[in-house]
């Protein structure tokens, strides 16, 4: 049921300046702002937001998120990990991400496989070994499809099946779906494996429709497929990010049949 879908924020938005203030939110204020001002109930954390932060900072951020009832859900690394280039270094990077995710209180990390890893079996054995290690205990790994080149969703599904187990899945993005031959079909193929889906949003027309791809068709398709996991709003537009995320939330609530009451 669509009422079970959790709406969250890809917190990379918060690295941009606030409207009229000229500077970004303070790091530890992000959870409360997301919950109170944007009315979203979870955070997807890009690695860039926490890079260079101490373990104490990550734990403090987790505590702030818990107090705001806006928990950290996923830690996302989009730079790409290529197990074909250096398996040991890539394994170390993956383990580092799992450690950071635990400090933040996330239940999963999401990464892109790059280079040879994205199209061959070279990543299967090392990723499976990491997921079976004590370092990844109780955490899930979600694979994100690449945009350059555009990854065939069938390849992503095949990689997930080969790795196997209960702790591997996908985190598709609307931007990737739109770059494929049939965005709605791409999401249909990936939805059964998806622990979360990034709702990539770039802007809206005057009549409330997304300007780059058919947001309504994608959401209605996911609901029709029976998708019940997380949706994370990612704002990629050039205008006011707070207003953009707010408009995206309103649109999603409408499409999910959960519009805010008027009185």
- Strands in their spatial order, largest beta sheet: 6-5-4-3-2-1-8-7
Number of strands: 8
Helical segment tally?
10
Helix content: 25-40%
Please outline the major beta sheet. Answer: 8 strands, parallel
**Structural class of the helix and strand makeup?**
alpha/beta
Average per-residue pLDDT, rounded, comes to: 91
Low-confidence stretches: none
The end-to-end span amounts to 25 Å
Describe the fold and architecture.
This protein is α/β, with parallel strands linked by helices and 263 residues long. The chain is built from 10 helices and 8 strands. The chain has an 8-stranded parallel beta sheet. Helix 6 (153-163) packs parallel to helix 8 and helix 8 packs parallel to helix 9 (215-225). The mean pLDDT is 91.
Outline:
The protein has ten helices and eight strands. By secondary structure, it is α/β, with parallel strands linked by helices.
Write the layout of secondary structure elements.
Blueprint: E1 6-10, H1 30-36, E2 43-46, H2 47-50, H3 55-67, E3 72-81, H4 87-104, E4 108-113, H5 124-131, E5 140-144, H6 153-163, E6 168-170, H7 174-179, H8 183-190, E7 196-201, H9 215-225, E8 230-235, H10 241-255
Parallel strand pairs: 1-2, 1-8, 2-3, 3-4, 4-5, 5-6, 7-8
Record keyword descriptors for this entry.
single chain, 263 residues, alpha/beta, 8-stranded parallel sheet, 10 helices, 8 strands, 38% helix
């Amino acid at each position: 049921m669509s009422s079970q879908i959790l709406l969250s924020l890809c917190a990379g938005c918060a690295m941009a300046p606030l409207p009229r203030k000229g500077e970004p939110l303070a790091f530890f204020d992000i959870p409360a702002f997301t919950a109170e001002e944007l009315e979203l109930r979870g955070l997807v954390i890009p690695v860039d937001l926490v890079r260079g932060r101490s373990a104490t900072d990550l734990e403090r951020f987790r505590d702030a998120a818990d107090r705001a009832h806006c928990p950290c859900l996923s830690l996302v690394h989009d730079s790409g990990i290529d197990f074909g280039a250096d398996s040991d270094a890539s394994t170390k990077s993956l383990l580092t991400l799992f450690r950071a995710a635990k400090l933040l209180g996330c239940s999963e990390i999401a990464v892109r496989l790059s280079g040879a890893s994205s199209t061959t079996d070279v990543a299967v054995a090392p990723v499976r070994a990491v997921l079976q290690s004590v370092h990844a205990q109780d955490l899930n790994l979600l694979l994100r499809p690449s945009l350059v080149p555009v990854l065939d969703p069938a390849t992503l599904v095949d990689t997930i099946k080969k790795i196997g187990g209960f702790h591997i899945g996908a985190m598709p993005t609307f931007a990737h779906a739109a770059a494929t031959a049939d965005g709605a079909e791409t999401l249909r193929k990936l939805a059964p494996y998806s622990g979360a889906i990034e709702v990539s949003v770039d802007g809206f027309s005057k009549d409330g429709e997304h300007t780059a791809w058919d947001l309504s068709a994608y959401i209605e398709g996911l609901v029709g497929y029976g998708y019940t996991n997380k949706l994370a709003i990612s704002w990629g537009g050039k205008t006011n990010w707070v207003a953009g995320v707010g408009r995206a939330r309103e649109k999603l609530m409408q499409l999910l049949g959960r519009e805010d009451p008027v009185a």
